[in-house]
Amino acid sequence: MSTTIKGQEAFLNNYKPLPIIIDKGVGNYVYDSEGNEYLDFVAGIATNALGYSYEPLKKAVQAQVEKFTHCSNLYYNKPSIDAANKLVELSGLDQVFFCNSGAEANEAALKLAKRYTNEYVNPNKTKIISMKNSFHGRTIATVSATGQTKYHEGFSPLFEGIVYSEFNNIEALEAAMTEDVAILMIEPIQGEGGIRPAEKAFLEAARQMCDDKEVVLIFDEVQCGIGRTGTVFAYEQYGVKPDIVSLAKGLGAGFVIGAIVANAKVGQGFVPGTHASTFGGNPIGTTAANVVLDALVHEGVLDNVKQQGAYLEVELKKLQDKYPCIIDVRGKGLMLAIELNAPVSEIITGALKRNLMLINSGTHIVRFVPPLTIEKKDIDKMIQILDQLIAQF
Length: 393
Ligand SMILES: Cc1ncc(COP(=O)(O)O)c(C=O)c1O
Known about the structure:
With 393 residues, the protein is an alpha/beta fold. The protein is 37% helix and 18% strand. The protein is built from 12 helices and 17 strands. The strands form 4 sheets. Strands 4-12-11-10-7-5-6 form a 7-stranded mixed sheet, sandwiched between helices. A 4-stranded mixed sheet has the order 1-2-3-15. The two termini are 22 Å apart. The structure holds pyridoxal-5'-phosphate (PLP). The site of pyridoxal-5'-phosphate (PLP) has 14 residues, from α4.
């Protein structure tokens, strides 16, 4: 494996990629330009929900490419109508806005919540509460809402009026819920913050406080949504429904798409001209979303997440019993993590050398977010390699 890639100087310096060039993928495996095979437990950062070369996805997208690839929101297109209706039906919410990424979905959620509050609740309510340790994206508003200072450095002045409250702390949230709060934004399972699930009582209390104080509750399910935890939406497992849910990543299984789904009350905040996205609802991304949603519900992918997620968790706990350096195993479905008592960067690079793709989440945490199509034999193989890596840790 070389350490530099020919042509890498053409990029701005904001990423630090591992030195391989991905050439293709088949099933749960990826191949680089030199023909090396890698078992994928990263899935393009919880995005390639159906692995690679998933036949129904290829066929549907190829057929759509033959027809047309873009038409703007000046007109309707059938794939976006179908995808919107599926999201409405599955979410129990009422109306969809499509965009192109998680950050854009969260921007749309914040704008919708703000405009609804200004028009229908009280324009003096201006504050946003988000969680410490959260991650909501890299635009100025979403990076400001992100409750981790390392993402803020060098970007001041940030978007105003954001208060960071401790995750899973009901008393702290109560104290932060002053009369001027308009929006509460929570990831039901914090992804970039180390795979930390919300407690049920916390989300229930959050919902109650939002109802009592006319605050819009946004769940950011960009990483934990779309089957990742074993239900289409993670909030289903908590029995707590948000006013708006934001989605991206797995929704397109690798095709570019983001979305918010809102209830009809808060949905009133948008009227023609108030928000837009040129590519939003693009027929390629929404064709992919239709395949993904059908695969989750009708092709057994959700069942696979439940089954393989439970198996992976058991296997990770066995490693924890074997190695005291693993101080925690946590997560839901196929969004799992181990926390170690030292930085994990050598595990990530060591795994790649052994043809296994892994990703960290913070310095001490290895997360496991494979394709939702992962199989038992893939998990066994991954665990075997991880065991060897941790033995040398
Ligand atoms: C919970 C959450 N929200 C928002 C984002 C931003 O998504 P994107 O990178 O598509 O803008 C991410 C990305 O990791 C995420 O995990």
